[in-house]
Amino acid sequence: MAAVRICVCGDDGVGKSAIITSLVKDVFITVKIPPVLPQVTLPPTLGTPDNVTTTIVDTSALPHERHILRKELRKSNVILLVYSDHYSYERVALFWLPYFRSLGVNVPVVLCANKSELASNGTTSQVVAEEMLPVMNEFKEIDSCIRTSAKEHHNINEVFFLCQKAVTHPIAPLYDSKENALKPAAVSALQRVFHLCDKDKDGYWNDEEINDFQIKCFEKPLGDDDLPNIKRSIERFVPGCAGEHGMDEKGFLLLNKIFAEKGRHETIWIILRKFHYTDSLSLRDTFLHPKFDVPQYSSAELSPAGYRFFVDLFIKFDKDNDGGLNDKELTNLFAPTPGIPSSWIDSAFPSCTVRNEAGNITLQGWLAQWSMTTFEEPKTTLEYLAYLGFESTDRGGTTNALKVTKARKRRNRPGRVERNVFLCYVLGASGSGKSAMLSAFLQRPFLQTYHPTIKPRSAVNSVELKGGKQCYLILEELGELEPAILENRAKLDACDLLCYTYDSSDPDSFAHIVELRKKYPHLDHLPAVYTALKADQDKTMQRCELQPDEFTSALNMAAPLHVSTTWSSISELFVHLAESATYPSTAFPKQDEEPYDNMNLYLALGAVACAAVSVVFIWKRNSSAPS
Ligand SMILES: Nc1nc2c(ncn2[C@@H]2O[C@H](COP(=O)(O)OP(=O)(O)OP(=O)(O)O)[C@@H](O)[C@H]2O)c(=O)[nH]1
Ligand SMILES: Nc1nc2c(ncn2[C@@H]2O[C@H](COP(=O)(O)OP(=O)(O)OP(=O)(O)O)[C@@H](O)[C@H]2O)c(=O)[nH]1
Ligand SMILES: [Ca+2]
Ligand SMILES: [Ca+2]
């Protein structure tokens, strides 16, 4: 909250200047004071809400000062409207409030009945019933009303406190006094708060959950009597909302409604602000979109804290414990968010990752999906961490769930790339079996039917490297965007590995790879693995100048690996791809002076393979029976 700027207005002689002097000087000045006081700025003191600085602006009601009044009203964020007798009271509804509306200023108004010590002004209960309530009912912009006496210094500090509170803790966004109800935006924010604090997701706040909430929002635990008292008052209004299971959502909303009705809406604001809501009841932008930069050649990944959060979330929402999130469970999980991320919808979630037989995303798939999202658009992950209630005691909030990988510079230098999530483009002739390979990667059964891929399509899964380390691999086939993506430097920089595929049973398949490499020479700067698909079918000669083995051998590259998606040994291809992405120098042309690197079994095979047949043979022998 920046500052409170109070514009004091009202008919002449009502005591505007006297109220301000009474506050500043603590005395009632009977000597002639200037009709309009210079503006006063007060620093925050003990008890100032939200530690705001307050500026008080005196005005004049005289017609020739109107332009100044108008300017000041537009600059203010609260109006203190003063009257002091019957005539100036009538003018409140007849002139002043309609005038503010006509100027389009939409700020709270604190209505002040000054000169309260004068007997002719009546008793407080009369003033409240006959003057204040009727005008409050008519004008919803009136935040509060108060009686003051500048002469007796009565309620002077209080009237300014009300003005400050009207700015720092406005009632208008929360409560509709005409409807006697919390406003819809406040209701949905509070529902989200309820949802996030219902840790065990049973639909109730048990005593422990209530206490945690209390400590989070008010930084002190509830007293012994508080809990039963709160429950009793809720039960009185709506029986059944605070029963043996605890307090349900309805009970929580009711409690907040009671706060609003009792003028304790400050409490609601404390709750909502703790949960990062702004005055307009949206989540703070810096909370949803914290600063997080990924430098060139680096990537974003989930940190251990981030993975832990998504694991916990999955387990919490897998209510039926079947190891998958069904539609209902997913809807519940995403309830505190605007819904499933739009990029997930575009990629036909959850078909791009691991699902169980029922078609529901598994924990493995869930983590793979978030690994891919974080890699491709870390901003989305950060946004959803905020929506889903990721909490961190460290500074930095949701960014603690992410990390930036070490910049990957020269790829053809031997060594490991410090990443756990890798992107691999699968490039090859249409019909060569790329989609089938992606499906096999997700352990989907092999399908005979052929559906050409038009939109780019990804598959993400975890892969266990030799030695037991786990990483995530994103395989992407580019569909008709292949040319556009291969021309895009940034896209290629982001990619960790190319997987060239061809159909070894189709004589016209390998030519596509030859063409691609001719057309986009900079593909040479990327590590690559050559793969001959459909090894279950008869191999034919390729109609090209060089056969695939000769081609790769001329490049000093490993010979193509022959695999079939109909064999379960295909999983070894994925390990090989992940290994090649981790140690990219192994997927570049071998340099003569480089000592032979025995790290990779398949490359070792490739190096000795003068005849592809032997490779096929070994792959067959390694594989279990064709399925
Ligand atoms: N009895 C009584 N008189 C007051 C009170 N407050 C202000 N007055 C008197 O009312 C008269 C007008 O007070 P101002 O403070 O000048 O009123 P104002 O609203 O600033 O008037 P303009 O500057 O003309 O717009 C002065 O004679 C004050 O002494 C009060 O609480 N009680
Ligand atoms: N026998 C056999 N058939 C396969 C194998 N892999 C894919 N196929 C079949 O080959 C056809 C084409 O496979 P896709 O995976 O759609 O080929 P694609 O490369 O994605 O094709 P585009 O999307 O057009 O670029 C389909 O009918 C598959 O069933 C395999 O390993 N063995
Ligand atoms: Ca609960
Ligand atoms: Ca395809």
UniProtKB/TrEMBL annotation:
UniProt-listed Enzyme Commission number(s): 3.6.5.-
Give the first-level EC class, as a single word: hydrolase
| Primary subcellular site in the record, as a coarse category | mitochondrion
The Swiss-Prot or TrEMBL record annotates one GO molecular function as: GTP binding
Q: How does it sit in the membrane?
A: Single-pass type IV membrane protein
Q: What does this protein do?
A: Mitochondrial GTPase involved in mitochondrial trafficking. Probably involved in control of anterograde transport of mitochondria and their subcellular distribution.
Q: What is this protein called?
A: Mitochondrial Rho GTPase
What is the species listed in this Swiss-Prot or TrEMBL entry?
Pleomassaria siparia CBS 279.74
